[in-house]
Amino acid sequence: MEKTKKKKRKTFTRRDFLKGFGGGALSAAVVPQLLAHDIDSLRTKKGNIPLFSKKQISLTVNEKKFSLVVEPAETLLHVLREKLNLTGTKTMCARGECGGCTVLLDGNPVYSCLYLAVRADGKKITTIEGLATKEKLHPVQQAFIEKDGYQCGFCTPGFIISSVALLNKNNNPTLEETKNALSGNLCRCGNYSRIHEAVAAASKNMRRA
Amino acid sequence: MTNFKIAEPQTIDQVTSLTIDKKDKYKLMAGGTDLLAEIKDEIIEPEVVVDLKSIPDLSYIKKEKNGVRIGALTSLARLAEDTLIKNEYPALHEAANSVASPQLRNMGTAGGNLCQRPRCWYYRDPQVKCRKKGGGRCFAFRGKNKYHAILGGGLCYIVHPSDLAPALIALDAEISINSPKGNTTIPLTNFYTLPKINVRKENILAPNEVLREIKIPLIKKEEKSTYSKFIERGTWDFAIVSAAVKGTVSGGIFRDITIVLGGVAPVPWRLTKAENIIKGKKITEDLVRKATREALKEAKPLEENGYKKELAEIVLYRAVLSLL
User: Fold this and answer.
1) Distance from CA of A47 to the nearest CA of B (A)
2) I need a labelling partner for A203 at 20 to 30 A (CA). Which of A20, A106, B16, B191 fits?
């Protein structure tokens, strides 16, 4: 399901293509509200259990409200990337082992690849795109740049989200606490020490601010 | 991920009154971290996923006069952060804190952790039809078995992956199960079953039964507990061997002690023999190692996992030392 759609070789870049596709999927997903009534039910002696093959959900992503129709097997990661065009959250292992898809769900970091979109109904999500305010980067983003907290950069959104979750709860973490908080994120370039330095720098800047 | 329908029950009674007519048609989902990974890996293909989180009020930690009650849908993160658990049941606190990663602890639940499926790589490989998946043999027996069971194997050599289970069993926890026949409360240790009982399952739960609550009795005065987990990586992983220990200790002597090992058998493994040897004697490394060896005499390691016997001695010694 999270497999990248086959790309067509045209003059577009891959990113343009994927973004264009995502936008199309968004409008297609939001318009046919009738689909939301695709409800069946399981009859039991203790009443009927609502059974959905499609469901209308409302969620807040980066302080913007979205209402859309999702299928039960769609993950939050899929919805963010393919329907809401927020491709900053990365698909890596897609089975809850690497942390590339980490987002904040009501303030807590979760793997969006193992979180069903139907469950995000009524929740507040923060992705990497929601951290900067206008032209000003979040202190953690700034620190990752200044301290070279990335090499290839693919795991970076996940690491930044986990770091923000840590610093929101503990603005002066020890190295041990930082390592623990980031233990659910993998960096295959092995840039961990720089990442930990970036978190320490961000923590210092945030306390000063 | 193969598509499925999602059912959102409002009460546990609705779940227990589901008729199970076709194999694996329904699967109950708590946190979903294990279930969805199994669906993605095409190990199971349920038609309907029953979302237990749509049932209100199954997430709580309540202190009462005869112990603490934990709702099955309480997140592992909440369990790990709770000060009552941390102060009174350190084994449970340490076990919850050692499960997976921060993200997974925010998603996973106490009940789900107790009911998770094994990590055996033959079981997790969709191409392999082992006994646990209805096939005719256990591929670990003569295959790659570094992480497999040294005790209680036979038909299937999985180890139970739960961290909470050994800790809770050492703490004498009980669980409440809602079933179509009524509701029961049983000791957690009776929940788990060996492959010889039913090779397809790790516990007694039927597809339409719900593990609703965990109950831990009050700790006795001066009772201490701990959970020690050996993993192969520097960061999060499933236990290679773990030891949960509870007891009362003074002057370097345990007046009573309960020991449960994880990572060595298809069920959490109580070391009664070792308990009897350790009880009442001055703790030394020699004593703990000898007691473990004695208790693991019946172990039948496979080609690659004999090291677990010696590792268990060390892990248990570390756990015991931390309580002195």
Assistant:
1) 7
2) A106
| B210 lies in the same domain as B258 | no
Class of domain A14-127: alpha beta
The helix or strand, by DSSP H or E, that contains position B258, with its residue range, turns out to be strand B253-262
Structure tokens at B226: 């701990």
Question: For residue B238, is it within any domain?
Answer: yes
Q: CB contacts < 8 Å between A and B, how many?
A: 110
User: In angstroms, what CA-CA distances link B291 with A116, B251, B279, B284?
Assistant: 47, 19, 10, 11
Supply the CATH classification number for the domain A139-208. 1.10.150.120
Tell which of B4, B17, B103 to mutate to test the A interface (max A CBs under 10 Å).
B103
- Nearest Cβ partner for B101 among A49, A52, A183: A183
CA angle B155, B34, A87 (to 5 degrees): 145
Tens-level pLDDT at each residue, chain B (324 residues) = 899 999 999 999 999 998 877 676 899 999 999 999 999 999 999 999 999 999 999 999 999 999 999 999 999 999 999 999 999 999 999 999 999 999 999 999 999 999 999 999 999 999 999 999 999 999 999 999 999 999 999 999 999 999 999 999 999 999 999 999 999 999 999 999 999 999 999 999 999 999 999 999 999 989 999 999 999 988 889 999 999 999 999 999 999 999 999 999 999 999 999 999 999 999 999 999 999 999 999 999 999 999 999 999 999 999 999 999
Please state the three-class secondary structure of B32-98 as a single string.
CHHHHHHHHCCCCCCCEEEEHHHCCCCCCEEEECCEEEEECCCEHHHHHHCHHHHHHCHHHHHHHHH
C-alpha B84: how far from its chain's center? 21
Instruction: Indicate the residue type of B3.
Output: N
The amino acid at B119? R
Residue B172 CA to its chain's centroid (Å): 14
A55–B102 C-beta distance less than 8 A: no
Burial class (CB in 10 A: 0-12, 13-18, 19+), B284: exposed
